[in-house]
Amino acid sequence: MGGRRRLIRGMLTAAMLLAAVAAGGVGLVALIQQLTTDRIEARQAEQTLQQLEAVLPAGHYTNNPAEDVRRVRDTRLGTEQPLPVYRARRNGEPAALVLTVIAPDGYSGPIELLVAVDTAGEVLGVRVVDHAETPGLGDAIEARRSDWIDGFRGRSLGDPPRDQWTVRRDGGAFDQFTGATITPRAVTRAVARALDYHREHGDALFQDASEDH
């Protein structure tokens, strides 16, 4: 009888040990997952801030626009999905908006852009965030490949007139690339649509709201 009790006691002890090990393992996995998630989010926030710094002039703002965000939904921005708009402020006052806009008609697929516009409607900077355009040709939209993307800086809907916001081959004011028209045309028109949206909603975007439709 005593042997049976010892056997049962041993089995219970082993079961408790296994349960403790399993619980510890689950906790360890959860901790590792949380640490990994925090690290990924921190890295993403750092990358976002770097992208914003590429389109916003230094000294133009005093806040952290990566943390001052609204999400908007408007098909003129190239998608039916909500997109982030980053708000730059100087000493608490509106200074500029950085709109995320999609050019859906790129040569090899959608092109994602950041377009920074000041409160007067003037472009401060444009950068390509993501694309699949042809290397050595369409990828000249990247700042590391050429200075073409900087041609939008200082422009507005009145400079040039709205109907000239396309490439020269279409009668517009902006250069295309040698051997490539579709990519720069898509980007130029997307920037113009971002300016259209800014003209209509720029002031309201500095007000707090969860999402605009």
Protein described:
The protein is of the alpha+beta class. It has helices at 2-55, 182-201, and strands spanning 69-72, 83-90, 93-103, 111-118, 123-130, 211-212. It has one domain. The chain is built from 2 helices and 6 strands. The protein has a 6-stranded mixed β-sheet with strand order 5-4-3-2-1-6. The radius of gyration is 26 Å and the shape is elongated.
Strand and helix map with partners:
Blueprint: H1 2-55, E1 69-72, E2 83-90, E3 93-103, E4 111-118, E5 123-130, H2 182-201, E6 211-212
Parallel strand pairs: 1-6
Antiparallel strand pairs: 1-2, 2-3, 3-4, 4-5
Structural features:
single chain, six-stranded mixed beta sheet, 35% helix, alpha+beta, 6 strands, 213 residues
Main pleated sheet: 6 strands, mixed
- Principal-axis shape: elongated
Q: H/E order of the elements?
A: HEEEEEHE
Alpha plus pi helix count: 2
Poorly predicted residue ranges: none
Structural class: alpha+beta
List the quaternary state of the chains: single chain
Count every beta strand, where a strand is a DSSP E run of 2 or more residues.
6
In short:
The chain has 213 residues and is of the alpha+beta class.
